[in-house]
Amino acid sequence: MERICLQAAIVFCALVLLAVGLSGVLLGSKFLHGGESASADNFFRFLSAIAAGMGVMYITTLPRIEIHGERMSTLSFLIVAGGLAHLYGFILRPTPSFGTLIALVMELIVVPLVWLGQRHVAHKAARAAQLAPA
């Protein structure tokens, strides 16, 4: 049951990353009502594509989630690092949008919990494998 709940949480995180990432790729900085600077727009699309790619990487962990600890750790680290950058931006300009607040919750609370869940499921699977008769 824990494994299924973890997989559901990963699907949710992956879909959020894919939706936000692909929207940013397709709409550019207009996705966030941004400026029209070509450089800023291109950089925003680049970062959005990375987010979408991370969503795909999350999906690839689903079939055997218990063996993908390294991938989950890497993805979680990158997302938490982005969340810390969001938090820094919030400190500099303490009037975030609702979307920014949701992103902060996802990046600094949900993703670390998913990472911990993966570690737990992996540990349980490893113990079960040790106890299984040969």
Could you explain how this protein is built, in words?
The chain has 134 residues and is mainly α. The chain has one domain (2-131). It is built from four helices and no strands. It has helices at residues 2-27, 38-60, 69-92, 98-131. Helix 1 packs antiparallel against helix 2 (38-60) and helix 1 (2-27) packs antiparallel against helix 4. The chain is elongated and about 65 Å long.
Which terms summarize this structure?
134 residues
Layout of strands and helices, then pairs:
Elements: H1 2-27, H2 38-60, H3 69-92, H4 98-131
What percent of residues are in strands? Answer: under 5%
Low confidence ranges: none
> What's the count of strands?
0
Question: Can you give the helix content as a percent range?
Answer: over 70%
What's the main sheet like? Answer: none
Principal-axis shape? elongated
Counted by DSSP, the helix tally is: 4
Structural class category: mainly alpha
The ordered H/E elements are HHHH
**Computed CA radius of gyration, to the nearest angstrom:** 17 Å
Number of domains: 1
Mean pLDDT: 91
Distance between the termini: 25 Å
